[in-house]
Design brief:
By secondary structure, the chain is mainly alpha-helical. The chain folds into three domains: about 180 residues, Hypothetical protein af1432 (Orthogonal Bundle); about 90 residues, Growth Hormone, Chain: A (Up-down Bundle), CATH 1.20.1250.30; about 80 residues. It has 21 helices and nine strands.
C-alpha cells in the first residue's frame, strides 16, 4: 500500500492512501501552491499575542478537517450508500474550504472588505489555479461540485452539511485544535461520541444526531461558546487586531492623500496594490500571506509619518491598546464613549487611530441559533427525541442548554493607548460606578 502520513498534534496520524483515486486527488491538492500557502497564514490570527502557543496554521487545521470528514464518511458509509464521486467532492471541499483566507485570517477581511469564502470559490473555479487543474483532471465537473459544497448548493445536502453547518467538521477540528494550541481547555468535547451518533435523514436530505449523542452535542455547543468568550474575544487578542487595523487604515489614508513618500511600500507587489486601493485579482489575493503584512509593519517602524511609525512600533513590540468592556445601559454608554474619546484626544492622540470601538462585527459570535425565517438546514441541528419511537426535532426543542445558548454574546468595548488608562478608568467609575 502506498500512502502519505502527516503527524498531527490533535489527531495523531493522518493517513492518505496514494494508490486510490480519492487519495491521489487529495495528495495532489495538498501539494498545490494555493494550499501550501496556508502554511503561511496563522489559524488564530493574532492570538499568539495572548497565547504564545497559538502559532498553528490554516494548513494544519485544513488537514484536520479533511481527516474528520473522511472519518465521518467512513462511519456513515456503514449505514448509507455514498457515491464515490460525492465522497471525493466533499473531501476536496473539506480540504480546500480555507484557501481563500487572507493574511491573519479574519483581520484582513475587516480591513479590505472581502469574505474568504468568495475567494475560496474563485480559486476552485478559476482555470488559472493549480487547484482547479487538479480537480478537472479528476473530472470536468469536480470544480463546480466542490464550489457547490462550499456555497451550500451541493446535493445531497446532508453531505454538504458535514463541511458547512452548525455541526460540521470545520468547527469540530478548530475547537479541539485551538484549545490545545492555546492551552485553554474550554474547547474540549466528546468528538468520538458525536461521530458515532451522526446519521442521515434520507427523506429530508439532512444530517441529524441520534438520541444517544444529545449530551455530546450540548457539550460541543458549550465548548464553542466558551472558546469565543475566553479565546476568540480575548481583550488582548482583539486589542492587537485593533492596532493592526489602525496601522493599515493609516497606510491607506496616506496613499489616498498623496503622502506615499511618508512610508515604504515594496514595489510591484499585491500588498502595495491593496494599499493603493486597487481591485485585487485572484492572483493578487493568493500572493499575500502573513509575511507580507509583517514585513511592511516592520518597515513602517521607520516611517516618516509619526502615527504610522508609532502604531507600527507598538504592534511589533507588543505595546498594545488597553480595553474596557462597556457593560452599562445605552445612555450611559454613549456618554462614556464620548468622554473617553475626548480624553484620548486631550492626551495628544488622534482618536481616528488610537480610539477603537470593538463590537466583534467581523466574526461570528452566536454559539447556536435556529432561524425561524429560513429553510437553510445548515443553520439547524436536528436530534432524535426519544429512544423507543424517536422523532427528529430541532435541538432547541429538546435541549435547555441549546436554548440558553441562542442568546449569544454581544461584545462592545473600547480600545485606547495605555498612556490614558488612568483617565479612562476614572471616567468609567464616574459613569458606571460599581454596584454593591
Amino acid at each position: 500500500m502506498s500512502e502519505r502520513i502527516y503527524r498531527d498534534p490533535v489527531h495523531n496520524i493522518i493517513r492518505l492512501r496514494t494508490d486510490t483515486a480519492e487519495g491521489a486527488l487529495l495528495v495532489r491538492l495538498i501539494d498545490t501552491p494555493e494550499f501550501q500557502r496556508l502554511r503561511r497564514i496563522k489559524q488564530l490570527g493574532l492570538a499568539l499575542y495572548t497565547y504564545q502557543g497559538a502559532e498553528h496554521s490554516r494548513f494544519a487545521h485544513s488537514l484536520g478537517v479533511l481527516h474528520l470528514v473522511r472519518r465521518v464518511l467512513d462511519k456513515l458509509s456503514e449505514r448509507y450508500e455514498i457515491k464515490e464521486d460525492d465522497r471525493a467532492a466533499v473531501c476536496a471541499a473539506a480540504l480546500l474550504h480555507d484557501i481563500g483566507h487572507g493574511s491573519f485570517s479574519h483581520v484582513m477581511e475587516a480591513v479590505a472588505g472581502f469574505h474568504h469564502e468568495a475567494w475560496t470559490i474563485a480559486a476552485v473555479l478559476s482555470e488559472a489555479t493549480q487547484v482547479n487543474r487538479v480537480l478537472r483532471e479528476y473530472s470536468e465537473a469536480m470544480p463546480a461540485r466542490v464550489a457547490s459544497v462550499i456555497d451550500g448548493t451541493f446535493r445531497p445536502n446532508a453531505l454538504a452539511q458535514l463541511v458547512s453547518s452548525q455541526l460540521d467538521v470545520d468547527r469540530m477540528d478548530y475547537l479541539l485544535r485551538d484549545s490545545l494550541m492555546t492551552g485553554a481547555k474550554y474547547g474540549i468535547y466528546d468528538l468520538e461520541w458525536i461521530i458515532n451518533a451522526l446519521a442521515i435523514d434520507e427523506a429530508n436530505d439532512r444530517t441529524y444526531v441520534m438520541a444517544r449523542g444529545l449530551y455530546a452535542v450540548e457539550e460541543y455547543l458549550q465548548a464553542r461558546y466558551y472558546m469565543f468568550r475566553q479565546v476568540y474575544f480575548h481583550r488582548t487578542l482583539r486589542s492587537a487586531e485593533a492596532v493592526l487595523r489602525s496601522i493599515l487604515r493609516r497606510a491607506f489614508e496616506l496613499v489616498t492623500a498623496g503622502n506615499e513618500s511618508e512610508m515604504y511600500l515594496a514595489d510591484d507587489t499585491a500588498f502595495a496594490r491593496m494599499i493603493h486601493g486597487a481591485t485585487l485579482t485572484l492572483a493578487d489575493h493568493l500572493e499575500m500571506d502573513d509575511a507580507d503584512v509583517m514585513f511592511h509593519v516592520k518597515q513602517w517602524q521607520r516611517a516618516r509619518d509619526p502615527i504610522l511609525r508609532d502604531l507600527s512600533c507598538r504592534f511589533i513590540e507588543r505595546r498594545l491598546f488597553k480595553a474596557v468592556d462597556l457593560d452599562m445601559p445605552p445612555t450611559e454608554r454613549t456618554t462614556f464613549v464620548c468622554a473617553a474619546r475626548e480624553a484620548v484626544e486631550a492626551a495628544g492622540f488622534d482618536a481616528a487611530y488610537y480610539f477603537v470601538e470593538d463590537q466583534a462585527s467581523d466574526v461570528p459570535h452566536t454559539p447556536y441559533h435556529a432561524p425561524t425565517d429560513t429553510l437553510d438546514e445548515r443553520k439547524r441541528i436536528y436530534v432524535e427525541d426519544g429512544y423507543a419511537r424517536p422523532v427528529l426535532r430541532e435541538i432547541t426543542e429538546v435541549s435547555q442548554v441549546a436554548r440558553g445558548l441562542e442568546r449569544g454574546y454581544k461584545l462592545h468595548r473600547i480600545c485606547f493607548p495605555p498612556e490614558v488608562k488612568a483617565d479612562i478608568y476614572r471616567l468609567y467609575r464616574t459613569v458606571a460606578p460599581p454596584t454593591r
